[in-house]
Write a structure and sequence with these properties.
- The chain is an alpha/beta fold.
- Helices cover 36% and strands 13% of the residues.
- The strands form two sheets. A seven-stranded parallel β-sheet has the order 8-7-6-9-10-11-12. A five-stranded parallel β-sheet has the order 2-1-3-4-5, sandwiched between helices.
- Helix 1 runs parallel beside helix 13 and helix 5 (106-119) packs across helix 7 (162-173).
- The longest helix has 19 residues, at 301-319.
- The protein starts with 7 loop residues before the first strand and ends in a 14-residue tail after the last helix.
- The relative contact order is 0.14.
Length: 333
């Protein structure tokens, strides 16, 4: 891009300093130093003048916003893997390229999934809370704070993509039996390596698992994939872990089952209406029936820097006249 005008890049949230510094070196980068989410009018102003918009999951880039974009807007370089916050079809119709940041968060999210998988049955947050309450712990007892082992249990993975596969590798090392449901069966070599059992029927898998890990993307097809009907198929001793997207699960139905004892527990890093968290989930967390985290699955310094580098590569590639490596195309009907 030497000798050419630097593209105006509007970044909607505060990014790691290392990433922002590189952005300023390469582009005419407009930063959000306050890290306050942009309002919709502010987003409209941004797309009317920017050559590149760098949004995050907290920004709603819908068809109405895209329709107001100026002719100069060539790229929406999402700072994140999921693009459910962007109307990809509307962007394509307007000739705007969409990119994301795949593969850099697989291991981080899988780590957090495994952490929640352990935290709920082994009652980690309950135990930590006892020590935080000075004087409450009377000492070790053979029948106190008993949880459940995960070794030897059946894990059902909903969505055996890169993250789901990374979860499976960790879970196998912890002695779980790996089962999965996916749109397509994974390669035989992967199945053999993980000793994984494929279920073409999600309903049948759910009815037989001890732990369910949700690792599929949020799409119209996966909205409430775990509906009230499907949740009712689970054993009362089963646990659910969700580090994907909150709207994949019917949250109200899940809460009802946890409250009534029809489900043993849940570990949730995402919520259907986040950043709002249902007060009933907070109450269940205080009772030890659920562990809730504020969307921390991918929150590592290394991961956030890797995401920024992906965004930079996609911008540079497009403005160098080539196809960005992480281009996202509209889903086929």
């Amino acid at each position: 891009m030497v000798g050419r005008k630097k593209p105006l890049v509007v970044i909607t949230r505060k990014l790691p300093d290392q990433v922002e510094t590189r952005m300023r070196e390469l582009f005419d980068a407009r930063l959000n130093v306050d890290d306050r989410p942009m309002s919709q009018p502010e987003l409209v102003a941004a797309v009317k003048e920017a050559d590149v918009l760098v949004p995050t999951i907290t920004d709603r880039i819908d068809a109405a916003l895209i329709a107001q974009a100026g002719e100069q807007l060539r790229l929406i370089a999402n700072y994140g893997n999921g693009v459910d916050n962007i109307d990809v079809t509307a962007a394509a119709e307007k000739g705007i390229t969409i990119t994301n940041t795949p593969n850099v968060l697989n291991e981080d999210t899988a780590d957090m999934t495994m952490a929640l998988m352990l935290a709920v049955p082994r009652r980690l947050t309950e135990g930590a809370a006892v020590l935080a309450d000075n004087g409450k712990w009377a000492g070790w007892s053979p029948t106190w704070m008993l949880g459940h082992r995960i070794w030897g249990k059946r894990l059902g993975i909903v969505g055996m993509g890169r993250i789901g596969t990374a979860v499976a590798r960790r879970a196998k090392a912890f002695g779980l039996s790996i089962h999965y449901h996916n749109r397509h069966r994974v390669a035989p070599m992967i199945e053999d390596d993980l000793e994984a059992t494929y279920w073409d029927s999600l309903d049948q898998m759910l009815a037989r698992m001890d732990i369910i890990s949700i690792n599929c993307p949020s799409t119209p097809a996966t909205f409430h994939l775990l509906s009230a009907r499907r949740l009712a198929l689970l054993h009362p001793s089963a646990y659910i872990v969700n580090t994907a997207r909150g709207d994949v699960v019917d949250e109200d139905a899940l809460i009802g089952m946890l409250e009534s004892g029809k489900l043993a527990g849940a570990g949730l890093d995402v919520f259907e209406h986040e950043p709002a968290v249902n007060p009933k989930l907070v109450r269940l967390a205080s009772q030890g029936k659920v562990v809730i985290l504020p969307h921390m699955g991918s929150a590592t310094i290394e991961g956030r820097i890797d995401m920024g580098e992906k965004v930079i590569i996609n911008i540079r590639t497009l403005f160098d006249g080539h196809r960005p490596p992480d281009r996202v195309l509209p889903r086929k009907a």
